[in-house]
Design a protein that fits this description.
- By secondary structure, this protein is of the alpha/beta class.
- The protein folds into two domains: 430 residues, 7-stranded beta/alpha barrel, CATH 3.20.110; 121 residues, immunoglobulin/albumin-binding domain-like (Up-down Bundle).
- 46% of the residues lie in helices and 9% in strands.
- The chain has 17 helices and eleven strands.
- The protein has a nine-stranded mixed beta sheet, sandwiched between helices.
- α6 links the parallel β3 and β4.
- The radius of gyration is 24 Å and the shape is globular.
């Protein structure tokens, strides 16, 4: 295969169904569905109908997929649609009274948008995962997986926890999409090589050898992952959630690596991890900083365009957005009214620029005629944070096709371009500073104390088997489910960024308390004590509320036989 462009979308939200509604809870999922997931699917269907196969690589995280496939979500999304439709009507009446005709027109714009998305949702039978699966069967996208609940691999204290996250992910993915995943999106692109690791907190500070993440992936049949560019090319990482991103000059010059030729550390070629000498390990693709900066950076990238819709200013009640970014001051009082037609014109110009950038990068970074520009993004950026994002993606795909620029999924690239080299990567993530500080800091250390305590207790509790007692098995399965939910990296992220700190802290406390009570119930059952009525009610409630992964088995934490 010659040089190629690979767009990768990471689609994830933590378990929010049955855990509140507004301002934090299922409305997050409803907003992302209407503003991101449905627009992306509509975009893909339009492209395919016009004979364009976009070849996107899309991660749908297992915990998100479980929610999207649930009857509970269908109830929530219907309730949400009724509310936003009512908000359009009520808000229009308000601005009619105020005499603001330009905003009255935007209420109609929003009403038509929500009606179109709801009709699309109805047309696909409400089956968002199944619609993505159909696109994969047609060869238009490749769906990859993620850790089951987005656990932060480098900081989990036990290999059993990582195996549990991976096995649960592979099983859930296969159940929903009809085939096992080939690739994985590492949560937060967080990677850890093989070395003697010491837990950063908790009671057990024993130093022990831990395998590299790429070794663990390979044991579950996962062939590749995406890593941030700074792990191979040096320099500073791009932290995607800062409004201010310092303008950097990125060097793609290679670094020496144990006497290997300089091209061995190219950002633009897949490389095999070196934890086990290059055998039995997954392959890394590296995020291209040039194209990434153009999309992620609000300061220097496309989403900061002054004519695009302002995310932060909303009209209440109703929560509709009627204003454009306007300027860089951040003063919400200065925002001018949004003009959709002008914004769409800017989208086309930005798509032109991006395609030119990709073409130039492929030409300049080619090694022996081969280069892979890997551009990974959070899918929720497109449509939710950047309202015009799905239209921009469609414009890029159409221009790529017209220009004859090759686009392939990462699996296709790997089939045609096997890794030439093996590289030893340092530890890191795509978070601020390129390390773990977003997820491990003085504000979040207490959460890891609870995670580590639960991990150790769970390992003792299950000990590789669940026994024949039906009630005890149900308790152990639910305890395993609560551990998985406790391990979600979203809680530390929300605490650190302050996005929903109280909610995240409550979720950590709840899942830990649930785990501890289930652990005590399991011990009582092991001692042949009958389950009380109160305990049985508690178990049924948790099974109903935290319903993810119905086929979950605690023995999935055991290390599988390595795959060759």
């Amino acid at each position: 295969m010659s040089s190629s462009f690979s767009l990768v979308l990471h689609t994830h939200l933590p378990m929010v169904v049955n855990h509140g509604r507004w301002p934090h809870g299922s409305d997050w999922l409803n907003e992302a569905t209407f503003e991101c997931y449905l627009p992306l699917l509509e975009t893909l269907h339009r492209l395919v109908a016009d004979g364009i196969s976009p070849k996107w690589t899309i991660n749908l995280s297992p915990i998100l997929t479980e929610q999207l496939a649930s009857p509970e979500f269908q109830k929530e999304i219907s309730f949400y649609y009724d509310n936003v439709r009512r908000a359009c009507v009520d808000t229009r009446e308000y601005f009619v009274r105020e005499g603001q005709r330009n905003i009255v027109q935007l209420t109609q714009f929003w009403e038509e948008f929500y009606e179109r998305m709801w009709e699309f949702h109805r047309r696909v039978g409400g089956d968002i995962p199944g619609t993505f699966a159909e696109l994969q069967r047609g060869g238009h996208v490749e769906i990859i997986t993620c850790a089951a609940t987005h656990g932060y691999f480098p900081l989990l204290s036990r290999d059993e926890s990582i195996h549990l996250q991976l096995r649960t992910a592979v099983e859930a993915h296969t159940r929903h999409f009809g085939r096992a995943p080939r690739g994985i999106w590492l949560p937060e692109c967080a990677y850890r090589p093989r070395y003697e690791w010491t837990p950063p907190t908790g009671r057990d500070r024993t130093r022990r050898m831990r395998p590299g993440v790429e070794e663990l992936l390979a044991q579950h049949g996962l062939e590749y992952f995406v890593a941030d560019s700074h792990l191979i090319a040096g320099g500073l990482p791009l932290f995607l959630y800062r409004d201010y991103l310092p303008l950097q000059t990125f060097s793609t010059e290679t670094l020496p690596n144990e006497g290997q030729p300089s091209q061995a550390r190219s950002l633009y070629l897949p490389s095999r991890g070196a934890s086990r000498g290059g055998t039995g390990t997954a392959v890394a693709f590296f995020r291209d900083p040039k194209t990434t900066l153009q999309v992620w950076s609000r300061e220097h990238g496309y989403p900061g365009e002054y004519h695009y819709l302002e995310f932060h200013k909303k009209h209440f009640p109703g929560g509709l957005r009627f204003w454009r970014i306007t300027d860089s001051s951040g003063d919400l009082g200065k925002k001018q009214v949004y003009e959709p037609r002008t914004a769409m014109e800017k989208v086309q110009a930005h798509a032109d620029h991006f395609v030119e950038l990709v073409a130039d990068t492929l030409a300049s970074e080619s090694v022996d005629g081969q280069a892979v520009v890997t551009s990974p993004y959070d899918a929720e950026l497109f449509g939710h944070w950047w309202f015009e994002g799905p239209v921009w993606l469609e414009a890029v795909a159409r221009r790529m096709a017209r220009a004859g620029l090759p686009c392939h999924t990462l699996g296709e690239v790997l089939d045609a371009t096997p890794p030439r080299t093996t590289v030893a990567l340092p530890e890191g993530s795509w978070g601020e500073g390129g390390d773990h500080r977003v997820w491990l800091n003085p504000d979040t250390e207490w959460t890891w104390d609870r995670v580590y305590s639960a991990e150790a207790e769970w390992a003792q509790l299950t000990n590789g088997e669940t026994g024949d007692d039906r009630d005890r098995r149900r308790v152990l399965v639910q305890a395993t489910r609560e551990l998985l939910l406790l391990e979600s990296s979203d809680w530390q992220f929300l605490i650190t960024t302050g996005t929903a700190r109280d909610y995240a802290e409550r979720r950590v406390a709840e899942h830990y308390a649930n785990f501890k009570r289930l652990s005590e119930m399991a011990r009582r059952l092991q001692q042949r004590e009958p389950m009380s009525v109160e305990a049985a009610d508690f178990l049924r409630r948790l099974e109903r509320e935290d319903f993810a992964f119905p086929d979950l088995d605690p023995v999935w934490g055991a290390s599988p036989t390595p795959k060759t």
